[in-house]
Every structure is written in C-alpha cells, then in structure tokens.
C-alpha cells in the first residue's frame, strides 16, 4: 500500500489531462460552429458541458472496465464491494469530480469518517480503489 494516495492523485492528474484535451478538441469544433453561426451564447453553458463530459468519462471508464486510463497507468482499479462494477455505481462514486471543491470535500470527509483509503462517495456507492496486484 506504499504511496497509495500519491498514486491515486497522480492517476487523477493523468485523467484530468485527458479530459482537458477532450474539452479542447470539443471546444475548438464548437467554436468553429459558433463563429460560423454567430451564436456565442453557447459559451454561457460551457461549464455545464465540461461537467457532463467529466462525469461521462469517469462513469463510462469505471462502469465498463473498473478503471480509467490514469488508474490503469498506476495499476489501480475500482472494485465494487458487492460484485461487479456497473454504470450506476460508477456514476455515484464520481459525482464529486464535477468540480474541484466537491472533490476536496469528498476526500476530507473520507479521511474523517471512513477507516480505509476511500473517499466518502466510495463508501456511499459501496466501492473501493485497490492495487491491481492486490485485487487479483
């Protein structure tokens, strides 16, 4: 369990870079459409589009493969305590990743109220993050 939180944080940073790159690609395509049609009011909703993309990325990756690209790189995996991961469980555990403040609160509450290396939404969703070597 050496440096477990460091690896989780590094995996999150990798995932943030991936999501940011996706957002840049999508925003460049949307900007071309906005410039062509003159509908710049779409920018008012960009934060919601970004939040949806973040939730979709983490929910899809963890619901389908129990890991994200960042977690896979650092040999981490999400495990449901009562069986296989699914999209509903992945969605619940990733709700706090919409913005930084809820994620920080989620981690702090996890340190205070949960006895393991889990965030509070891991407890709520019945999941935990494990080392791939330990899980097998």
Automatic annotation (TrEMBL):
<feature type="transmembrane region" description="Helical">
    <location>
        <begin position="43"/>
        <end position="61"/>
    </location>
</feature>
<feature type="domain" description="RDD">
    <location>
        <begin position="5"/>
        <end position="124"/>
    </location>
</feature>
<dbReference type="GO" id="GO:0005886">
    <property type="term" value="C:plasma membrane"/>
</dbReference>
<keyword id="KW-0472">Membrane</keyword>
<protein>
    <submittedName>
        <fullName>RDD family protein</fullName>
    </submittedName>
</protein>
<dbReference type="InterPro" id="IPR010432">
    <property type="entry name" value="RDD"/>
</dbReference>
<dbReference type="Pfam" id="PF06271">
    <property type="entry name" value="RDD"/>
</dbReference>
<feature type="transmembrane region" description="Helical">
    <location>
        <begin position="12"/>
        <end position="37"/>
    </location>
</feature>
<feature type="transmembrane region" description="Helical">
    <location>
        <begin position="95"/>
        <end position="114"/>
    </location>
</feature>
<keyword id="KW-1003">Cell membrane</keyword>
<keyword id="KW-1133">Transmembrane helix</keyword>
<keyword id="KW-0812">Transmembrane</keyword>
<dbReference type="InterPro" id="IPR051791">
    <property type="entry name" value="Pra-immunoreactive"/>
</dbReference>
């Amino acid at each position: 369990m050496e440096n477990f939180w460091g690896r989780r944080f590094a995996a999150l940073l990798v995932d943030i870079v991936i999501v940011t790159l996706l957002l840049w690609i999508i925003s460049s395509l949307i900007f071309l459409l906005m410039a062509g049609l003159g509908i710049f009011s779409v920018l008012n909703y960009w934060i919601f589009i970004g939040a949806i993309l973040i939730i979709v990325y983490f929910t899809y990756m963890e619901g389908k493969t129990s890991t994200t690209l960042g977690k896979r790189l650092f040999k981490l995996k999400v495990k449901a305590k009562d069986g296989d991961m699914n999209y509903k469980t992945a969605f619940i555990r990733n709700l706090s990743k919409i913005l930084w403040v809820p994620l920080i609160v989620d981690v702090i509450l996890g340190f205070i109220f949960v006895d393991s290396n889990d965030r509070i939404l891991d407890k709520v969703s019945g999941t935990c993050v494990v080392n791939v070597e330990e899980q097998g």
